[in-house]
């Protein structure tokens, strides 16, 4: 019976000529009016034809009917193709608007930049491909549309991060706070998660606007919301890196203390490892030199030259007349990590020209020409250059904490070498000192004094990086597990570590791919080692990403864009900071209904 029903409901070819119907996508469709018939039964099709179209086509014979059917079928196919083309163009227009919105966000440009871009596109289209003008006109880039597209892109990135978070076996957070152009405190929270395949994801977790006070409790509440909203379990949190501010690192009322208390409430078995940003600490170590008097003098000289337009113009003209290699001196900005070294080096190179210029202005240059000051300036230039080189090594995305620690250890070793060489009167790694020493007598150059300063600097490095030194054994398990003394390793991984060190195949793989990639090749039969590697790979060594985000924030929310809403600022920064994730524009476009618009319309 079921088979007979199925056969009775199949569309027959003869119905095309008899009833002017065709079969499209498993449904009978009337060729005259385009109506679909729900059930493919002859009774239903015949009834539609007789009630709607019989009077008009009753006089046609079978030949004429067949010709009419073919003509109608060609017309139907043409209409379908036209609709497909229109749909395709509409989807392309939506995708294009998303792509442009993403580029506007990445470049920190205002939303109304889309309208300017569309005007440019239309003018280019008129000259290059006028036949495509309608397609370009369909791309909606009004201010409101670009703003909406930006929020959609940011939401899509966040959803992807939430999906990836389900696979994290360990994650760490980097937290920092700064103020924007409207003096609103902005809290940035970055996450570095490692999945079961030991692949690292490093993205912006949250960017929270704090319109009131920024105490440790309030910062913790915002960080806790970020972790809860993305549905991450607290027992997988292994590391927390901050800028070292009291509200961040307080053991009781600070963020660190409250996170540890939260983990105890959640019965988390693991221990939270806390770090003070390694780049901040490197910058703070330089203060142990106690050479602010040299920097103050240099800053005063630079400010005298740069503060007044006339002085600045005359100084640049003076350098040009002297045939100097340099055309100007830069300002010193305290918050810029590398500013100090650049200003010192430029002033040292132009010390003679600066003195001559100041004398033409009636300024006393006795201090600038003193041998003691010149020696101190040369030493500060050289040590600042070395510190800047270390700073650059520590910067960047995706930095593994073991590599950052290795760079600091290498610098501490260099300090010991430089101290010994300076005591011997051999500043071979200090080019500015060598230059000054060649101009004055060896007896005047204070080698012992500078050796003492290098010793103080080395002591300060050891003190400030004690928390990193305490993790040395864990760092070695990631950087070079084949050289670790098994007896000093944690008990739970000793057996697996012996198996690893005795496996020649894994040793060859380590030599081939390096320490950063090797953990992915640790077999599943060594779960403790894989867990240990995942925890180390997830650690943040610095808050560099937060600092970089704040730089983008200041470029985005300027004094001219103070009315930028918190939501829009957050969306822009999530797009511009995305590294391992990319917006799924195809998915977004499929959810949007395309709107053909002119230049002045909006969604």
Automatic annotation (TrEMBL):
Top-level taxon in the UniProt lineage: Eukaryota
Signal peptide: none
Domain SPIN-DOC-like zinc-finger: 13-71
InterPro entries assigned to the protein according to its UniProt record, in alphabetical order: RNaseH-like_sf, SPIN-DOC_Znf-C2H2
Name used for this protein in its record: General transcription factor II-I repeat domain-containing protein 2-like
UniProt organism field: Oncorhynchus kisutch (Coho salmon)
Lineage: Eukaryota, Metazoa, Chordata, Craniata, Vertebrata
Gene name in the database record: LOC109873117
């Amino acid at each position: 019976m079921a088979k007979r029903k199925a056969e009775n409901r199949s569309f027959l070819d003869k119905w095309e000529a008899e009833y002017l119907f065709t079969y499209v996508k498993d449904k009978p469709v009337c060729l005259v009016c385009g109506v679909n018939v729900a059930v493919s039964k002859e009774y239903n099709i015949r009834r539609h034809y007789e009630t709607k179209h019989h009077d008009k086509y009753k006089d046609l014979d079978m030949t004429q009917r067949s010709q009419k059917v073919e003509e109608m079928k060609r017309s139907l196919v043409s209409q379908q193709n036209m609709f497909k083309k229109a749909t395709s163009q509409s989807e392309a227009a939506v995708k294009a608007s998303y792509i442009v919105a993403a580029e506007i966000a990445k470049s920190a440009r205002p939303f109304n930049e889309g309208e300017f871009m569309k005007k440019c596109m239309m003018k280019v289209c008129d000259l290059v491909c006028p036949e495509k003008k309608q397609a370009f006109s369909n791309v909606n880039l009004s201010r409101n549309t670009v703003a909406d597209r930006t929020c959609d892109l940011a939401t899509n990135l966040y959803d992807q991060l939430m999906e990836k978070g389900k696979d994290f076996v360990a994650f760490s957070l980097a937290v920092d706070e700064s103020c924007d152009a409207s003096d609103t405190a902005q809290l940035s929270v970055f996450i570095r998660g490692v999945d079961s395949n030991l692949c690292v994801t490093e993205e912006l977790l949250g960017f929270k606007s704090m319109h009131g006070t920024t105490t440790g409790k309030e910062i913790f509440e915002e960080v806790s919301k970020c972790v809860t909203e993305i549905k991450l379990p607290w027992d997988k949190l292994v590391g927390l890196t901050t800028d070292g501010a009291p509200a961040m690192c307080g053991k009781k009322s600070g963020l660190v203390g409250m996170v540890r208390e939260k983990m105890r409430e959640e019965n988390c078995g693991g221990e939270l490892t806390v770090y003070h940003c390694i780049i901040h600490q490197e910058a703070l170590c330089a203060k142990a030199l106690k050479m602010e008097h040299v920097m103050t003098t240099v800053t005063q000289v630079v400010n005298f030259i740069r503060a007044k337009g006339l002085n600045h113009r005359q100084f640049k003209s003076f350098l040009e007349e002297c045939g100097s290699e340099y055309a100007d001196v830069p300002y010193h900005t305290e918050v810029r990590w590398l500013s100090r070294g650049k200003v010192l080096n430029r002033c040292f190179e132009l010390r003679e020209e600066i003195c001559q210029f100041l004398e033409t202005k009636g300024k006393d240059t006795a201090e600038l020409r003193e041998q003691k000051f010149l020696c101190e300036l040369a030493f500060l230039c050289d040590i600042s250059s070395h510190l800047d080189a270390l700073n650059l090594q520590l910067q960047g995305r995706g930095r593994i904490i073991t590599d950052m620690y290795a760079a600091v250890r290498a610098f501490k070793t260099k300090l010991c070498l430089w101290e010994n060489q300076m005591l011997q009167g051999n500043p071979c790694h200090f080019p500015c000192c060598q230059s000054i020493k060649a101009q004055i007598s060896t007896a005047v150059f204070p080698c012992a004094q500078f050796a003492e300063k290098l010793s103080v600097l080395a002591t300060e490095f050891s003190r400030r990086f004690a928390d990193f030194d305490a993790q040395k054994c864990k760092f070695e398990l990631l950087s070079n597990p084949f050289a670790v003394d098994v007896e000093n390793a944690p008990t739970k991984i000793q057996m697996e570590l012996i198996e690893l060190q005795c496996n020649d195949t894994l040793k060859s793989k380590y030599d081939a791919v390096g320490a950063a990639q090797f953990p992915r090749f640790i077999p599943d039969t060594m779960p403790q080692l894989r867990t240990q590697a995942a925890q180390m790979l997830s650690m943040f060594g610095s808050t560099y990403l937060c600092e970089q985000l704040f730089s983008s924030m200041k470029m985005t929310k300027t004094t001219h864009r103070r009315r930028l809403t918190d939501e829009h600022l957050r969306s822009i920064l999530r797009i511009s900071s995305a590294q391992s994730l990319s917006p799924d524009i195809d998915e977004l476009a499929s959810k949007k209904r395309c709107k053909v618009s002119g230049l002045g319309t909006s969604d």
